[in-house]
Amino acid sequence: MLAWDDHDFRVRFRLGKNVVLNLLEYIEDEIASQTIRNNAVSPINKLLLTLRFYATGNFLITAGDFIGVSKSTACLIVRDVSVAIAKLRPIFIRMPETESEIRDLQLHFYQIARFPRTIGAIDCTHIKIQSPGGPDAEYFRNRKGYFSLNVQTIASPGLKIMDVVARWPGSCHDQTIFKKSRIYNKLVSGYWKNSLLVADSGYANTQYVVTPYLNPSNDIEELYNESIIRTRNPVERSYGVLKRRFPVLSFGSRLKLETTQAVIVACCVLHNLACDDNDLEPPELLNMDLPLNEEFSLREHHELEVGNARKQLTEEYFPFLN
User: Fold this and answer.
1) Local structure of residue 138 (DSSP, 8 states)
2) What is the three-class DSSP state of 99?
């Protein structure tokens, strides 16, 4: 690590030195080799190799050359370190739990565009994978025609990821993933009381999830739309920051499916660590152009559910905003 100044280190490994060293304290014991024979790779070099892999867009040989190990050894290191980082999810990826956390989150969302009661902005993004093979492979082919995982996240106003679901194949619709999630069950049970998630038209409008009007018919609905679009912007921005910081998520993964899922969650943990370090703008990439982040928002017909927070807001709240 001493070979690079702070800027060069961030360019190569996508995180600051202090963040990497703090992370190492959490996972060092888990990723340490069981033997010191045969020039075993040190925990810090395993971590740096994995970060270099995330930064080079899925080139295991390039990452392995960084510390002089074979492609197969690099693959094992990336798997083990990714799993170790992903296990930190309960610590670094979490929704609000206390009344104070809920109020603070609602206030910060309100300060964006005066949208009330919001505790998260929800959306999905596709992470390209190779065909997993087997009889269920086609379930992973998305509407754009390539294989992917459809990954659901919930973002905070500060772009932190508060929840991630990275197990669903690319053919699954956003609403389906949401209704099968732990967050959905907690919302339905009243865990966060009258709090709301803001979403796009890929989700059903309910008493706990609100979406824009597709065809606003008056000034109040226009005002509502302007407010909700700005309020849910953090989740879209978080995807841009996440994929620029870790190009492996833009170029796609050729790892085994289970390892890819661990890599996705690990990158979300690292993203939050960077946010905690007030590092919201990843450094420029060296000689690398990222593919465009494709937009999958499609207007779907959703079954009506009990309750309609959007109707309530446009009747009882937005008409009285100055």
Assistant:
1) G
2) helix
Q: Is the pLDDT of residue 290 over 90?
A: no
Spatial separation of the C-alpha atoms in residues 304 and 290, rounded to whole Å: 39
Task: Name the E strands within 51-110.
Answer: none
Nearest CA to 306 among 188, 224, 178?
188
Q: Is the pLDDT of residue 95 over 80?
A: yes
> CA-CA distance, 173 to 168, in Å (whole number)?
9
Q: How far, in Å, CA of 21 to CA of 191, rounded?
A: 36
Q: Measuring CA to CA, which residue among 167, 166, 175, 220 is closest to residue 200?
A: 175
The model's pLDDT over 212-250, given as tens digits with 9 standing for 90+, comes to 999 999 999 999 999 999 999 999 999 999 999 999 999
Tokens of residue 52, six digits: 């270099």
Q: Is 285 exposed, middle or buried (0-12, 13-18, 19+ CB in 10 A)?
A: middle
Q: How far is CA 125 from the centre of its chain?
A: 8
| Token pair belonging to 79 | 């798997």
User: Which residues contact residue 96 at a Cβ distance below 8 angstroms, ignoring those fewer than 6 apart?
Assistant: 102, 104, 105, 119, 162, 192
Amino acid of residue 226: E
Least confident range of 25-39, 120-134, 163-177, 216-230? 25-39
Six token digits for residue 85:
């980082």
Q: Is the pLDDT of residue 296 over 90?
A: no
Region 252-267 average pLDDT: 95
Tell me the Ramachandran region of residue 125: left when phi exceeds 0, alpha when psi lies from -120 to 50, beta otherwise.
beta
Beginning with the edge strand found earlier in the chain, give each strand of the sheet holding 118-128 in spatial order: 161-169, 148-155, 118-128, 196-198, 209-210
Q: What are phi and psi for residue 3, nearest 5 degrees? A: -70, -15
Q: Can you tell me the distance from the alpha carbon of 200 to that of 212, in angstroms, rounded to the nearest whole number?
A: 6
At 307 the pLDDT is 72
Q: Cα separation of 264 and 58, whole Å? A: 13
The pTM for the full model equals 0.92
| 159 φ, ψ (degrees, to nearest 5) | 75, 5
